[in-house]
Design goal:
globular
Length: 182
């Protein structure tokens, strides 16, 4: 089975754009494809205009993860997706394209991680292109060995808090620097 990749997508823009997105997303499902239900499939609603499924999404499959959509304010929402191997790049670009038609100052950004943390990354869509920073060097087994060598128990420590989250911070700082330069 393919590795699972978690992606958090953050959409910031006008209330009108966020209202539009949330209303449409909340009607979607992620079941079998092609769609066999009354409600729209997430790929039909937000996938790129392409013939093949993989070209609509940017990965072999996509599922809505966790709550699916969380609206943190009138001008921001977050969506959570699971995909095969990579973030759903084609879907991310299509979300940006659709939202930019409503609000030309829309910001689509986010982060992703493979279940083995190789890779993890952060991204921002800039005029229809994904600009990203990645890290392929996180190794949980090396961390486990270090914990064991220190004589501590793995369950007393947290790989995400000690390694992954700080790596995201570094990647975001690098991406912010790149975005300021372009």
């Amino acid at each position: 089975m393919a590795n699972s990749n978690r992606t958090e997508i953050y959409i910031e823009g006008s209330k009108e754009a966020i209202d539009n997105f949330v209303e449409r997303f909340e009607k979607c499902h992620d079941g079998p494809y092609p769609n066999q239900e009354e409600n729209p499939h997430i790929v039909d609603e937000f996938g790129a205009d392409a013939e093949l499924f993989i070209d609509k999404v940017g990965s072999k499959w996509v599922q809505i993860w966790d709550e699916g959509c969380y609206r943190s304010s009138d001008n921001r929402c977050e969506i959570y997706l699971d995909t095969a191997w990579y973030p759903p790049s084609d879907m991310i670009l299509e979300i940006y394209r659709q939202m930019a038609e409503i609000d030309d100052e829309i910001k689509v950004s986010g982060k992703y991680w493979d279940e083995g943390y190789q890779p993890i990354g952060v991204f921002e869509v800039y005029y229809g292109q994904i600009i990203e920073e990645q890290d392929h060097d996180l190794d949980e087994s090396e961390w486990d060995e270090e914990i064991e060598a220190e004589g501590e128990q793995e369950y007393d420590r947290n790989f995400w808090e000690e390694v992954v989250d700080p790596a995201f911070t570094v990647l975001q700082e690098r991406l912010d620097k790149v975005m300021k330069e372009i």
